[in-house]
Specification:
Layout lengths: L1 E5 L3 H13 L3 E5 L2 H11 L3 E5 L9 H12 L4 E6 L4 H9 L6 E5 L6 H12 L3 E3 L1 H10 L9 H11 L4 H8 L3 H14 L10 H11 L1
Parallel strand pairs: 1-2, 1-3, 3-4, 4-5, 5-6
Helix pairs in contact: 2-3, 3-4, 7-9, 7-10, 8-9
Length: 212
Amino acid sequence: MRIVLAEDGALLREGLAGLLERFGHQVTAVADADALVETVERSCPDVVVTDVRMPPKFVDEGLRVAVYLRERYPGLGVLALSQYVAKSYASTLLDSGNGAGVGYLLKERVGDVTEFLDAVDRVAAGETVIDPEVVRQLLQLREDPLRALTPREREVLALMAEGRSNAAVGRKLLITEAAVSKHIASILAKLKLSPSGDRNRRVLAVLAYLRG
């Protein structure tokens, strides 16, 4: 199997390349994101194994390139390695290609040789490999649509859920009906409930409250 390995740390890069080669794989190792793109375009590998943080900024260059390569080469298997979960691009990477032939492992798993090699093989075979800790963190990072609401807006929404009119909400909270209308407009905007002729935004806002 042809593998392109992208890792800026020399010791880890040489160690992983040697490990993969011992198990019969043809490995090309590179140290930065630009070299990763160039090598993939030149050698058409079966799998890319890439670090997330790479030169020049050491933020998420490796993951950005992985997403780009998945878009350009849909059949390319990509296994991302990281010391942490980069939530925005991790989700995009795992959604690419309908989630087939993609993986995201935390670097601590690399210490388990059998688990690492199995992950590479499974990604090459079109399977999805996700570190259980990555799953846990991504679930925690899912945005609660009510999180953006202020305490007062939550109170207004709770009373809306009870079926109270704007006037009744105002009497309960000791505020004017105009203030209630202003709070409701803010709630609908924060819940991204845009005006639509076939949708009752007030009902949808209440449903969001009940689900939360």
